[in-house]
Write the structure tokens for this entry.
Amino acid sequence: MKNTIALIFTLLILSGCGKMITVPLDPTPISTNDATVIIYHEQGFSDNFQIFLDKAPVGFVTSEKPLKISITPGEHELHTVAGGFIIDRVTKQLFEAGKIYYMRIWLDIGMWVSSIRIDPTEAKDKYEVRSHKQ
């Protein structure tokens, strides 16, 4: 009986508050002279991730609000900072004019150290995530 109650309590905590929502990703290019980068976070954390391009802040991403930016062609660095025992990893990528790039922020949980990453993904028009807005 105690195990059943503990299991139900754990499931309630893990399910979190909020409801599932669909977040659209707009694939329209910002410019034909620059690359368009769409950065999103679909793991459902309520964190607000500040995005840096070549060490300069360019905007914020939450689970419910992706970031769409224009980047000049060439190699650039993208990263975010999570703090604590989470290491931010820098992503270097070559961007081409007129192309659209999809990048996903995700938490890579390790046994001793975790890291927050921004990695390229396939094109998509939407994703589902748990909304934390009340």
